[in-house]
């Protein structure tokens, strides 16, 4: 404001001088007019430059960016439906305090672990856990604006495995190298794999399907067998042919988070790391912020929602004290969206 006010005063002062020149000294006025006008132009440029710097600094401290972040969410007991948190910096989150899609399918008709991705045509695709046990599939719906939703569908991905105990935490990912969607989830098939201390009915492995149109799907395949019970895996793309899988080692007494690496979204994923999180943690989601990656997860043993920061998925820094998550938030995924999407959800 100072720079703008300064420019107005100076411009007005030089204007009076030009007017005085024209009225009282016409023969010598033209050259003086040019000199004065050039001075005004220089002052205008300096003032506008200052205003631009001030504006950029102001935007850096506020939500001037057209980009925002959306975090899918649910509250226990998971029967109310889809919730959203939003943020402009991926560190401080606000609950929109309403539900946007009530679950209508599955044996228990709940919505747990909602995972979302936006396709190249702008359509949002949502998948979720629709029963704790008993179902051999998960829920699916789509939307253009996250307010009006398609009919909900039950995708019976494990119907070919009649002994399947459960289908948990489907995670959806868009593979832009193959132009297809990848969905992964955890299921238990008793006495199929080696196990640790957990019971046979809690010995999970990760499975996957792919689709281009959500009408036809590939046959379900084993996605990950790391030699232990695994759930809550999420695919992260760092670059072409460079992927990271963040996963939960669900064996007893571990129940914590690890990472693995691959050169394709569908794997194979190798070099499973040592744990980087405390025990009793689950439900990771990952978002890139500038040059770092933030990994949010439910530290249910501590009864808090935590966040770790990493630049290479080898060393991790606990930044839980730097983030704020509304009370009651449970396992979801974070995506980047245009700011106008958030404005539409606030209406």
Report on this structure.
With 347 residues, the chain is α+β, with helices and mostly antiparallel strands. The protein has three helices and 19 strands. α1 runs antiparallel to α2. The longest helix is centred in the N-terminal third of the chain and has 33 residues. It is globular, with a radius of gyration of 28 Å. The two termini are 33 Å apart.
Topology:
Elements: H1 2-24, H2 29-61, E1 67-73, E2 83-87, E3 94-95, E4 112-118, E5 124-129, E6 138-143, E7 153-155, E8 167-175, E9 180-188, E10 204-211, E11 221-224, E12 230-239, E13 242-249, E14 256-262, E15 282-289, E16 292-299, E17 304-310, E18 317-318, E19 334-338, H3 339-346
Antiparallel strand pairs: 1-2, 1-19, 2-3, 4-5, 5-6, 6-7, 8-9, 9-10, 10-11, 12-13, 13-14, 15-16, 16-17, 17-18
| DSSP summary: helix tally | 3
Q: What fraction of the residues are assigned to beta strands by DSSP?
A: 25-35%
Instruction: Please give the order of strands in the largest beta sheet.
Output: 3-2-1-19
Portion of residues in helices?
10-25%
How far the N terminus sits from the C terminus, by CA atoms, comes to 33 Å
List keywords for this structure.
347 residues, alpha+beta, 4-stranded antiparallel beta sheet, 19 strands, 35% strand, globular, disordered N terminus
How would you concisely characterize the structure shown here?
The chain has 347 residues and is an alpha+beta fold. The chain is built from three helices and 19 strands.
């Amino acid at each position: 404001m100072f720079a703008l006010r300064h420019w107005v005063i100076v411009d007005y002062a030089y204007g009076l001088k030009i007017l005085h020149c024209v009225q009282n000294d016409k023969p010598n006025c033209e050259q003086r007019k040019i000199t004065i006008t050039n001075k005004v132009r220089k002052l205008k440029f300096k003032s506008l430059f200052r205003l631009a710097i001030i504006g950029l600094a102001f935007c850096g401290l506020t939500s001037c960016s057209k980009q925002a972040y959306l975090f899918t969410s649910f509250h226990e007991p998971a029967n109310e439906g889809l919730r959203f948190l939003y943020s402009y910096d991926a560190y401080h989150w606000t609950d929109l305090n309403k539900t946007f899609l009530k679950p209508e399918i599955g044996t228990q008709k709940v919505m747990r672990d909602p995972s979302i991705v936006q396709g190249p045509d702008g359509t949002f695709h949502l998948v979720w856990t629709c029963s704790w046990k008993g179902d051999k599939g998960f829920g699916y719906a789509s939307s253009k604006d996250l307010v009006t939703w398609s009919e909900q569908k039950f995708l019976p991905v494990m119907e070919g495995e009649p002994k399947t105990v459960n289908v948990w935490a489907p995670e959806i990912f868009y593979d832009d190298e193959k132009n297809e969607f990848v969905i992964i989830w955890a299921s238990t098939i008793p006495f199929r794999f080696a196990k640790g201390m957990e019971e046979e009915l809690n010995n999970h492995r990760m499975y996957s399907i792919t689709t281009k149109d959500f009408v036809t799907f590939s046959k379900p395949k084993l996605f990950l067998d790391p030699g232990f019970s695994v759930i809550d895996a999420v695919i992260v793309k760092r670059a072409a042919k460079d992927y990271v899988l963040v996963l939960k080692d669900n064996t007893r007494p571990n129940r914590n988070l690890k990472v693995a690496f691959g050169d394709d979204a569908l794997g194979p994923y190798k070099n499973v790391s040592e744990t980087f999180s405390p025990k009793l943690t689950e439900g990771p989601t990952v978002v890139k912020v500038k040059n770092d990656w933030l990994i949010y997860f439910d530290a249910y043993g501590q009864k808090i929602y935590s966040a770790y920061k990493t630049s290479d998925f080898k060393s991790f820094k606990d930044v839980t004290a730097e983030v704020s998550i509304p009370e009651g938030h449970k396992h979801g995924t974070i995506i980047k969206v245009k700011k106008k999407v958030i404005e539409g959800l606030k209406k």
